[in-house]
Amino acid sequence: MLEYDFMQTAFEAGTVVAIVAGAVGYFLVLRNLAFAGHALSHVGFAGATGAVLLGVAPFWGLLAFTVAGGVGMGLLGDQLRGRDVAVGIILSMSLGLGVLFLHLYTTYATQASSLLFGNVLGVSPENLRDMLVLGVLTLAFLTAMARPLIFATLDPELAEAKGVSLRLIAVLFLIVVAVAVAEAVQVIGILLVFALMVGPAAAALRCTTRLKSGIALSVIFAVAETWAGIVLAYVTDWPPSFWITLLSSVVYGLTFAPLLLPRGARGEA
Amino acid sequence: MTAVELENLTLTRGRRTILSNVTAAIGDGEFIGVFGPNGAGKTTLLHAILGLLAPVSGAIRVFGKPPGNGTALAGYLPQKRSAIGDLRLRGWDLVASAYEGHRWGPPILGSRGRREVAWALATVEAMELAERPLSQLSGGELQRILLAQALLGKPKLLLLDEPLISLDPRYQQAVVELIKRVQSALGITVLLTAHELNPLLGFMDRVLYLGHGRAALGTTEEVITSEVLSRLYDAPIEVLRLNGRIVVVAAHGAVEAEAHRHDA
Description:
- The complex is a heterodimer.
- Chain A is mostly helical.
- Chain A is built from 13 helices and no strands.
- Chain A has a single domain, classed as ABC transporter involved in vitamin B12 uptake, BtuC (Orthogonal Bundle), CATH 1.10.3470.10.
- Chain A has helices spanning 5-30, 34-53, 58-76, 84-104, 109-117, 125-144, 146-154, 156-161, 166-188, 193-197, 199-207, 211-236, 240-254.
- In chain A, helix 1 (5-30) packs antiparallel against helix 9.
- Chain A is globular, with a radius of gyration of 19 Å.
- By secondary structure, chain B is α/β, with parallel strands linked by helices.
- Chain B has a domain at 2-84 and 155-175 and 182-259: Rossmann fold (3-Layer(aba) Sandwich).
- Helix content of chain B is 29%, strand content 27%.
- Chain B has helices at 42-50, 91-97, 110-123, 139-151, 169-186, 220-223, 226-233, 256-259, and strands spanning 2-13, 16-27, 31-35, 57-62, 74-77, 157-161, 189-193, 206-211, 214-218, 237-242, 245-250.
- The longest helix of chain B is centred in the C-terminal third of the chain and has 18 residues, at 169-186.
- Chain B starts with a strand and ends in a 5-residue tail after the last helix.
- The chains are: A mainly alpha, B alpha/beta.
- The A-B interface holds A 30, 143-148, 150-151, 153-159, 161-164, 205-206, 209-212, 214, 269 and B 47, 50, 52, 71, 76-84, 87-90, 92-94, 97-98, 100-107, 131-133, 149.
């Protein structure tokens, strides 16, 4: 399997994306922003298709739009609370714009499906290089802001009293999310970003009450699901995105399994 | 040595004057209960002592220094905690998040940080509690974890904003007793805001009562009187003492302590 170059590139790209998505996703879920991550990827669709129309690689259009969306969401902050309808309308508007751009650039139809549903087997070596650089930058940025991010996430009132700017943290974090989303789209697609950004993190949060173990477990789940998804795709010839979303759901579902055991047999959470 | 000194202090929030020309001195090692109707400025005063809000006129000194520089001297327990009750994380991580939490960088505690977190948790007798997920703790248990968090950095002054609110009476008593034990053991000053006097009777050294921009500081006997409270509320108030408990009644019959209990 690894004698094929495209398979090797797929594993490498999948690993980079899974590590970033697992780590960023943990904080996304901890901050109750899962829906924001979903919305950001949709905003990226208009950017990606618009970029193609302008003759630019879709990845950069995607990145520009998700980052702009992230900054906007971070600045609006609490004003977005309970505004699911407004966010939903903006994200469907963005998908609609994407459809228009696709219509104006008709030869692009096959690429549309890989944007929406991902195509890890189609990652080029140049793509991989960009993804690696961005992935390393994202993780470095996340590490550098981790301490105030955790403080502001767990205990916003005290953090603010101790001089942490909640708005600055929110904006910086959503920029990190935006880059992670743009990366994840390469593997899993705009519509399925939830599977890599939210699934492993949510499962990890159900498995351990320790913060650092939770981050590690989230990354391990994301990487394992991605690898297994690519292998299963190779064996079955079904799309890797299908397998990754299936595995993500199965792992999340399995974290509820202890609830099915009789009361006495349950271990400590 | 005075822990907190307010000198002709005037504080405003927006256009509203919260405190007007208040002078008071709180001694080192005192346990002060801070009371007053809603909007009287209890939280605003704590924010000013923390240096989060600058006085319009007058001065605040915390152990002789202007606030802000001395933030490390003051431990703070905010009233509203939006995120914590739903977290499936253990208490240890919550306490640890506040250790140097405002500084950029990776969340590495180091051995000094771990010792500090362990000390704070041991001081409130919550070492075992800290291994359990926050979402499974009762209100009183959660308050113990949060108190440990406020003790990080070994502050000489603790500012506790409504630590008893929404606790059952039996938990209220346990939390007050714990705060008193911690205060005596560490020899620190405590300012605690509350709506009800009775759970704190016998624990407080003095009472700081705020109302209509004014303040009265003194023992319970000096401050909780019909004369002083009528002046602070700007309305006739009666104070009844029953079996060692105090009931504050407005002249039209509403019981002050109860009327303000859950709407802060």
